[in-house]
Each structure stands twice: as C-alpha cells, then as structure tokens.
Amino acid sequence: MTAAIVQELRIYPVKSAQGIRLARSRLAATGLAWDRHWMITRPDGTFLTQRTHPALARIAVTLTPQALQLESEGREPLRLSLQPRGIPREVKIWKDACGGLDQGDAAAAWVSEVLAESVRVVRAPAASARRADPRYAGAHRAPLAFPDGYPLLVCNQASLDALNERLGAVLPMERFRPNIVLTGLDPFAEDRIETLHIGSVRLRLVKPCTRCVIPSRDQRTGIADIDPLPVLRTFRYDPALRGVTFGVNALIEAGCGELIERGDACRCEPAAG
C-alpha cells in the first residue's frame, strides 16, 4: 500500500455556493457532515449551479451549532435552521428526481436578490431516497444529499501541481471543489487507487470526476478566470466518459460517524491488476 496524508477537508453546505475549509469533519452516510445539504432551484425544482449561475460563488457560507448562515455583499445574513424541516417538494438533479424540503419565502427572496431571478431554497430530508449511480456503486446503495452524483470527491495535490506547471499559472484547489485533498502521492496516482483507509474509515474510489466550466471561475466572485479544461483535455480526456477528468468520486464502505482530521495518515490500496 502507498501512504498519503489528508492535506485538506472541505464541505459545500449549499450546492455551488462557497465552501468551508475544516480542520476535522465527521463522516455521515451521505459524505462529510453537512456537505451539499442545501440547494438552490428554479421554481419548478430544477437544480442550479455555477455552470449557469456563477453568482452563486458570491454566497459565503458558515455553520454554527444551530444554523446555516449565508452572506452576500450588501445584504443582511440569512440564517436557516439545521433541523430538516420545511414543506416537502420534488427537486431534480440531472436525471434524479428526489425529495427536498422548501426553506420558505424569506430564504427564497434572499437568494433571488443575489441571483436576480426567482429561485427557491431547499434542503435534504433527514432520510434521502436518492442513491449513487449503480453502474459505479454496484450493490453498495450509497445515499446522497445534493451532490452531482457521489458522496465524496477526492483530489491529489500533486496532480494540481502538475496541472499548474503545464498551465504556467497557479490555480487553487478550491476551483475543483474537492472534499478530501491528499498529499504525498505521485501526480494522478489517484487514478490507480481503489481503496483509501483513514483510521477505521474505508473509502472506495469508483469513478473519475468529469469536469465542467466551474474550475474556470473564481470561487469567491464567480468571475471567469483561467480555464484549465483546454490543457487538461490534452492529457486527461477519457473517451469512455466523454469528458476531461480531475479527481475521483468515492463511496463510503466503512466508518460512518468517525472523524477525519487534517494530517491524518491515509493508506492507499491500488486497484487489482
């Protein structure tokens, strides 16, 4: 097995809003605690992200023991209860139709002002029926809140360093919105890892993450900046997935309820063959 270190932990409580960098995080069944438990939708329930609404990057997010707080320049903060309550409504993430809890008119009005269009705010129910794609999850019925498709995204600092060398620029890791960032590996060694062991936590890496326009946006302003996709396409195009890849999606095989901390040792088990 190869050894690595957990360099960063990040969560994104509101899908496509700013993230939070953590010293430690508890692992829940759906991923790191509170990750992508809230989401902005059109009035018909269709999810929104920075792909079409880059202004979401201007929403700063903090968590207290009692509330989720959203902030955006020129507005009073919006506070939402951490309790899973609200009027049930159907929402749609890609092809997944799933349940959400509407967070009310005041929350909708606050985010609508930021985005300059009518939207709603929803949060994940206490028990979600949504599951990771069985083509990659297999029999493992991984529950999901509101990520694009998997509980966790794992990235490798050495891979970003290698990309930046080709770019001749310094893109920060936050552009790729990972949950766990590893250090101590060779560039793109994550492609060949099947299982990560972090103490009693066991994660299975199941699918390379295909990338969209979001890594080209400043994650504090939403303004278009250096786009890494043209360079990535020269050496990271996956014909089977029909996309450019960076980072690997992961499932949780063991360790729900355990803490993961920055600096934790990580044993990396390669894929068979």
Protein structure class: mainly beta
Mean pLDDT rating: 96
Fraction of residues in H or I helices:
10-25%
Based on CA inertia axes, which overall geometry fits? Answer: globular
Low-confidence stretches: none
C-alpha termini separation: 14 Å
Q: Strand order across the biggest sheet? A: 1-13-12-17-15-14-19
CATH homologous superfamily caption: PK beta-barrel domain-like
Here the CATH topology equals M1 Pyruvate Kinase, Domain 3
Q: Helical region count?
A: 4
Order of helices and strands: EEEEEEEEEEHEHEHEEEHEEEE
How can the largest sheet be summarized? 7 strands, mixed, barrel
Can you name the CATH architecture? Beta Barrel
What is the level 1 CATH name? Mainly Beta
The tally of beta strands, per DSSP, is 19
Computed Rg: 18 Å
Total domains, how many?
1
β-strand amount: 35-45%
Topology:
Blueprint: E1 2-11, E2 20-22, E3 24-28, E4 31-32, E5 38-41, E6 60-63, E7 67-71, E8 78-81, E9 87-93, E10 96-102, H1 105-115, E11 120-123, H2 134-137, E12 152-156, H3 157-167, E13 180-183, E14 193-198, E15 201-210, H4 229-235, E16 237-238, E17 243-254, E18 259-261, E19 265-270
Describe the protein.
This protein is mainly β and 273 residues long. The chain has a single domain, classed as M1 Pyruvate Kinase, Domain 3 (Beta Barrel). 12% of the residues lie in helices and 38% in strands. The chain contains four helices and 19 strands. The strands form four sheets. Strands 1-13-12-17-15-14-19 form a seven-stranded mixed beta barrel. Strands 5-11-10-9 form a four-stranded antiparallel beta sheet. A three-stranded antiparallel beta sheet has the order 4-3-18, with no helix packed on it. The longest helix has 11 residues. The chain starts with a strand and ends with a strand.
